[in-house]
């Protein structure tokens, strides 16, 4: 959830003297704590909240506090008689006076949680924070029956521009048209389509085509949502392939059908959801993945002034412009460091261009400027690059992800021609206009931190499914060949208070 408006303004518009305040001692009492991880009703795979270090004079620090004292967080059951596995890593220093606190619960607690936020031996802000139980872990199946209450608990936006734009093409959704057309048009042997029906908050599906292994990603987010909130009954098709599928115009006959995809394009009509990559990283954060939307925020490399003053790229050979990028790099090593780490599409180019060693993604941010070039479609690294504190040089592209509509060139990133003809010019501009480049990098980071918060992804998924369901012209049904997608087995204690009385409190 977002901090109150007054607090948001404080964080974005720190007073001019705040940098000097970084040398002043931190006031635990005056420091700020906020975020969705302080509310029991916000069930997420990884719960999180934020800290803002504030000086004794009441000024927001804009870089890490001096000295060795750091914030410490302890999360434990409110009742000493309850036992729960809770993983709480050290707060992530975001290098701007703010810290990100994460914790992952592996058990549910009935009575509640106690969260101590400390700076040294002192409690920070209103610590300790009490989350009255029950507080559920990720795999507890206990959906909120009132979707509006669930959305309010998460502070979900009431309007998502990409969702509104996508559904403007579909005032009604003709399920019979979809049933007759989609399997024939997109579900042949080479297809990557999965047909889903959600009834009574249960997920059912059948695969259409040979390349549907990625259904594990769509399965896991739908199951995760169903554990948290009652989903509307609906029937839809998800495209698991890279490219958007529906290229009919709005006024064509037959009319376009609302296939759901992870990537959109200017000449298609697919309904866009967050990519499988950011979705999976959100679900598996602090467990099955290294890079996720939270961890990246505390691993953005050296401060701006200490970053290498070059543009940087590493990636596969999934687009010809990436090969051009390496050629430019070889000709202009003082401006650009680019390399291909794996050849698949243009194997014959490996001898000419060479193969670069793999690098950890966090090491990308040792460089001031990050080049974002499309892969087969939109480069799914873009959200992670935006969450860093380097300037993103983004190739103009017909492809987009769900959050692009809010971003603006020259405010959040620097645009680069599709054929990269002005890339070197843009790198030179950034080097000659360091303060402006730093400002754009910061604005892009702030926008990404807001748009890509994990709870916002859940909000986005739910709103898209809700908008879809409201437009169906007939009732969804279970179709021949569909199988139920079961919730994962979980051995942790979890008794949903909505399904019956809780056990006696411990």
UniProtKB/TrEMBL annotation:
Catalysed reactions, as listed in the record: L-seryl-[EGF-like domain protein] + UDP-alpha-D-xylose = 3-O-(beta-D-xylosyl)-L-seryl-[EGF-like domain protein] + UDP + H(+); L-seryl-[EGF-like domain protein] + UDP-alpha-D-glucose = 3-O-(beta-D-glucosyl)-L-seryl-[EGF-like domain protein] + UDP + H(+)
InterPro entries documented for this protein: CAP10, Filamin/ABP280_repeat-like, Filamin/ABP280_rpt, Ig-like_fold, Ig_E-set, O-Glucosyltr/Glycosyltrsf_90
Basic and acidic residues composition-biased segments: 472-487
Positions of the Glycosyl transferase CAP10 domain: 230-475
PROSITE patterns named among the record's database cross-references: FILAMIN_REPEAT
Signal peptide range in chain numbering: 1-19
Pfam families in the cross-refs: Filamin (PF00630), Glyco_transf_90 (PF05686)
Origin: domain of life: Eukaryota
UniProt pathway: Protein modification; protein glycosylation
Keywords: Endoplasmic reticulum, Glycoprotein, Glycosyltransferase, Signal, Transferase
Role: Protein glucosyltransferase that catalyzes the transfer of glucose from UDP-glucose to a serine residue within the consensus sequence peptide C-X-N-T-X-G-S-F-X-C. Can also catalyze the transfer of xylose from UDP-xylose but less efficiently. Specifically targets extracellular EGF repeats of proteins such as NOTCH1, NOTCH3, FBN1, FBN2 and LTBP1. May regulate the transport of NOTCH1 and NOTCH3 to the plasma membrane and thereby the Notch signaling pathway.
PANTHER family reported in the protein's UniProt record: KDEL LYS-ASP-GLU-LEU CONTAINING - RELATED, PROTEIN O-GLUCOSYLTRANSFERASE 3
Protein family per UniProt: Belongs to the KDELC family.
The protein's name in its UniProt record: Protein O-glucosyltransferase 3
Species of the source: Cavia porcellus (Guinea pig)
């Amino acid at each position: 959830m977002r901090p109150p408006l007054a607090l948001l303004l404080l964080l974005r518009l720190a007073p001019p003297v705040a940098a000097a305040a970084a040398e002043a001692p931190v006031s635990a009492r005056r420091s700020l704590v906020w975020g969705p991880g302080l509310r029991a009703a916000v069930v997420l795979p990884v719960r999180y909240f934020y800290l803002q270090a504030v000086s004794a004079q009441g000024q927001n620090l804009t870089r890490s506090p001096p000295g060795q004292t750091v914030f410490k967080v302890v999360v434990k059951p409110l009742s000493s008689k309850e036992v729960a596995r809770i993983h709480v890593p050290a707060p992530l220093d975001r290098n701007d006076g703010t810290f990100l606190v994460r914790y992952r619960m592996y058990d549910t607690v009935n009575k509640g949680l106690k969260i101590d936020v400390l700076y040294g031996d002192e409690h920070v802000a209103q610590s300790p924070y009490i989350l009255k139980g029950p507080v559920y872990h990720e795999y507890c199946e206990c959906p909120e029956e009132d979707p509006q209450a669930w959305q309010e608990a998460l502070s979900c936006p009431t309007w998502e521009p990409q969702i509104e734009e996508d559904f403007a093409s579909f005032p009604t959704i003709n399920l019979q048209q979809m049933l007759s057309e989609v399997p024939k048009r997109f579900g042949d042997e080479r297809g990557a389509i999965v047909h889903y029906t959600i009834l009574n908050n249960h997920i059912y599906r059948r695969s259409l085509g040979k390349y549907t292994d990625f259904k594990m990603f769509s399965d896991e987010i739908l199951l995760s949502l169903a554990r948290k909130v009652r989903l509307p009954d609906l029937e839809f098709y998800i495209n698991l392939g890279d490219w958007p599928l529906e290229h009919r115009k709005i006024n064509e006959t037959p009319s376009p059908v609302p296939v759901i995809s992870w990537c959109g394009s200017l000449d298609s009509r697919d309904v866009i959801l967050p990519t499988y990559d950011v979705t999976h990283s959100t679900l598996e954060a602090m467990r099955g993945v290294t890079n996720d939307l939270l961890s990246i925020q505390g691993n953005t490399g050296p401060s701006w002034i200490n970053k290498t003053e070059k543009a940087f790229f590493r990636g596969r050979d999934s687009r010809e412009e990436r090969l051009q990028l390496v050629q430019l790099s070889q000709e202009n090593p003082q401006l650009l460091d680019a390399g291909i780490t794996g050849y698949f599409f243009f194997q014959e180019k490996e001898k000419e261009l060479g193969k670069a060693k793999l690098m950890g993604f966090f090491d990308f941010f040792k460089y001031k400027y990050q080049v974002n070039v499309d892969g087969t479609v939109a480069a799914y690294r873009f959200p992670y690059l935006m969450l860093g504190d380097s300037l993103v040089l983004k190739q103009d592209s017909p492809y987009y992800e769900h959050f692009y509509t809010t971003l603006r060139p020259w405010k959040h990133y620097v645009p680069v021609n599709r054929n990269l003809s002005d890339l070197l010019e843009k790198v030179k501009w950034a080097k000659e206009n360091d303060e402006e480049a730093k400002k754009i990098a910061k604005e892009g980071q702030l926008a990404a931190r807001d748009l890509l918060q994990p709870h916002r992804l859940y909000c986005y998924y739910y709103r898209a499914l809700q908008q879809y369901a409201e437009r169906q012209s007939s009732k969804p049904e279970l179709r021949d060949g569909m199988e139920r997608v079961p919730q994962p087995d979980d051995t942790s204690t979890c008794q949903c208070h909505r399904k019956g009385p809780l056990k006696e409190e411990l």
